[in-house]
Amino acid sequence: MKVPIYDFLLICLGLSFGTYRIFIDDNHRVSNEFAGILSYILSLWICISCAKSLKGINKS
Question: Where is the chain membrane-spanning (predicted)?
Answer without folding.
Answer: 5-23, 35-54
